[in-house]
Design goal:
With 326 residues, the chain is of the alpha+beta class. It contains eleven helices and eleven strands. The structure holds protoporphyrin IX containing FE. Protoporphyrin IX containing FE (HEM) binds next to helix 2, strand 2, strand 3, strand 4 and helix 4. Its EC number is 1.11.1.-.
Amino acid sequence: MTTSRAMAWTLAVSACLSWPALAEEADSGAIVAAQFAAGGNNQGVRASGAKGVCVKGTFTPAPGAAGLSKAPHFAKPTPVTARFSMGGSSPKISDKAKPVTRGFAVRMSDGPSDMTFVVISAPVFAARTPEQLLEFFKVRAPGPDGKQDPEKIKAFGAQNPETTRQSAWLNARPVPASFAGVDYWSVQAYTLTNAKGTPTVARLKFVSADKAGLSDDELKGKPDSFYADELKARLEQGPARFDLVAILAEPGDPTNDSTANWPEESRKTATLGMLAITGIEPNATCDARTFDPVAELPEGIAGPADDPMFAIRSPAYAVSLSKRAN
Ligand code: HEM
């Protein structure tokens, strides 16, 4: 081999070795497949939030909300379809599981226009980019013995420390006593725009009016599934209330990294309205379509254009819907 041919060969080999196409592309299909695999490949369920309860209610905007956003949902009360859920793709997950996020998908419907938020019981998400999310799930896929490899998970966490912030946060807090007894964060930043065109950047938070956690002893006394019955009994007594609060960004707060917490205690907030969950709905009401937090937004509110984790949610939720509908 001549020197120049040898050089070309070496270059070609090293180009192949580092060529990104060799790594699996972190598209919505690959991520959803990895989500299903991490939970044991259950059929007919969501790739995340597989175990959950469908509910209904009303959102009533606060007097100042229209000053921040021209979305019609901030101008008058709207009916709500919502779903509480346990994180992950296993419908058999225990309601006692820790560190696992509880989820809340909320659709406010104003005639043809929906405003949908899909939020979790932690202020941060577990991955910063689609590539990192794909790997996050891949290292959690059970092996042939049906068990996850804790060493693999630990090594991934050590190499990607920002992916461990969510579990650290959850581990430092008690398991919620109720789906309605915990706060839920958007983790991603939204831009609210009012009728004058003034933008306000904020993360959103549903603040429970009745926060309660379980002590370790209380947790021991609970069965693996108690949230659905607890919620039914609670709603028979009256609505479960949440304030929707905007946590206002200050210069330097990242809008493209949902693993980074904003120092919430020192941020100004604005209450956008009150969500009253009033009753249980048949599962079919929530299962017929997906709660799409990207496509279902009216004028006056937009997700973060600079966060690749936001846009990818729409196709991922559609892939999951197509799989569970089959
Ligand atoms: C970044 C913030 C995110 C939050 C707070 C979040 C939260 C949630 C919640 C609460 C659910 C349950 C929805 C329901 O009850 O119907 C859900 C479902 C789902 N999430 Fe996310 N998620 C996030 C990002 C992502 C990303 C980046 C992906 C994948 C690229 C993803 C994939 C899914 C899928 C496939 C479902 C099932 C959808 C369905 O079948 O209807 N999520 N998510």
